[in-house]
Design brief:
Strand order of the largest sheet: 1-9-8-6-5-4-3-2
Order of helices and strands: HEHEHEHHEHEHEEHEHEHEEHHH
Helix content: 25-40%
Shape: globular
Radius of gyration: 20 Å
Distance between the termini: 17 Å
Structural class: alpha/beta
Number of strands: 11
């Protein structure tokens, strides 16, 4: 039924539906259920230790013999200058006071690169069918090693220029991530929250600019969205928020409750939690920080300031519930049922349009 089989043939899957690798929420149970239903399941591995990645991949392989994806962030060791840290610390102090947390931390965590030699070595041992990257690509030798091991490589683009750079680097397919998408924006350089291109505008421009299969992501929640992606020239879709309401997802109870009553206006893009732009549920903290923008500590280091706020569990002050603009369309059904519905709905749209 699929009008473009480049992606299914490339990845060895039945349906060109990729589950987004949402860190924490993408469990081995969820990824395996997607794989077993003919899609490509994924694990968000960027924030896991090497041992945890190995354990999670083992748990996934115990549940499926189908191809799956391990996803990683790209970036060097984050560095924040002392003046930026001091200003950010002063800005967060009122939120710490509101939650009776005491003073903000006096130092930021010292972190290494997002993707390093240990992670590369693990991937070459594990040999997953697919590895994907967010925020660009690793250095050319690492990419060559993955390709040499027979691993398919995907990465995210949020502009035509990024898509062209990915194609020039020699990867296999491009995820075109629109502004509607939940979670972190995959731009290759940090961008301000207000910047972004919607999926409807982005996908056909990237399709026209590259020869690789393009995977549409952002705001796709049902068969109508999948069919629309194909009409725009995509060879498949990546969906994240749609899977958050399934029982297999590791979605925390607070976010599940929010998803059950979500609207299209619930979310905003903020860099005030992690240091990079991400779409999440609106919160007083994020809105206050966006109203008066100032430089913030680097991505991942910023969590050193915001994690105490998030761990307080007070959504009326600060939260980071990641989901996209189409969350109202979510269905709290098992993943296998959701996958069947997505395929059937898409087929019905194709059939309806072909008879007109």
């Amino acid at each position: 039924m699929w009008p473009d089989r480049r992606l299914t043939d490339l990845l060895g899957i039945d349906h060109p539906i990729l589950q987004a690798p949402m860190a924490g929420s993408a469990t081995p149970e969820l990824a395996a259920a997607v794989c077993n239903a003919g899609g490509l399941g994924a694990l968000g591995s960027a924030e896991m230790t090497v041992d945890r990645i190995s354990d999670a991949a083992g748990a996934l392989r115990a549940r499926t013999n189908r191809p799956f994806n391990l996803n990683f962030f790209v970036g060097g060791a984050p560095v924040t200058d002392a003046a930026t840290f001091a200003r950010a610390r002063d800005r967060l102090r009122p939120f710490y006071d509101a939650l009776d947390l005491g003073p903000p931390p006096e130092a930021l965590p010292d972190l290494g690169p997002s993707f390093d030699a240990d992670r590369l070595g693990l991937l070459l041992d594990l040999r997953p069918a697919v590895v994907s990257f967010h925020f660009g690509l690793p250095e050319a030798p690492a990419l060559a090693a993955l390709r040499g091991a027979g691993i398919r490589v995907l990465s995210t683009a949020t502009t035509v220029a990024e898509a062209r750079a990915l194609e020039a680097a020699g990867i296999d397919a491009i995820i075109a991530q629109g502004f509607e998408a939940g979670g972190h924006r995959g731009s290759h350089q940090p961008t301000a929250p207000a910047r972004g291109v919607g999926t409807l505008a982005l996908v056909p421009q990237i399709v026209d600019a590259v020869r690789l299969p393009v995977i549409a992501a952002g705001g796709i929640a049902d068969g109508r969205g999948i069919a629309a992606a194909f009409a725009l020239g995509a060879a498949g879709v990546q969906m994240g928020t749609a899977f958050l309401s399934t029982p297999e997802a590791g979605t925390d109870p607070r976010r599940r409750a929010l998803l059950a009553q979500a609207t299209e206006e619930d979310t905003m893009v903020t860099d005030a939690v992690s240091g990079r732009s991400a779409r999440a549920r609106r919160s007083p903290y994020a809105e206050a920080m966006e109203a008066a923008r100032e430089p913030l500590p680097a991505f991942r280091q910023m969590y050193g300031l915001t994690e105490p706020l998030l761990n307080a569990g007070r959504d009326d002050v600060a939260s980071f519930h990641l989901y996209g603009q189409a969350a109202r369309l979510n269905r709290a059904i098992p993943t296998a049922d959701l996958m069947r519905s997505l395929v059937a709905e898409t087929e019905a749209v194709f059939a309806r349009l072909s008879t007109r």
